[in-house]
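Fresh eyes needed here. Have a critical look at this protein's tokenised backbone.
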Amino acid sequence: MYLVAIAWLYVTLMMAVAEATAPTGSVLGALITFALYGLLPLSIVLYILGTPGRKRALRERRERELQAASGGQPDAGGHAAAAPQDGAVAPVREEP
């Protein structure tokens, strides 16, 4: 993904250089070309493509916080173990 982004910035940079060095071009036109054809669209595309990664990182952070708050390791089912309330001992379950 980043290779395409770098290539697109290179293309827009070359467009801006061509605009600046053209007989009727200007440096202001080159800056506007680079910003509007390169930086702005690329930042929008990278933000949209990065959304799943940000959601995944947020989900993982929340899971770590819940595990830390419950005070323990996850049980065999992958869920955090419940913290004992006020030193109470869980009842023993008898088999019938």
Q: What stands out?
A: The chain has three helices and no strands.
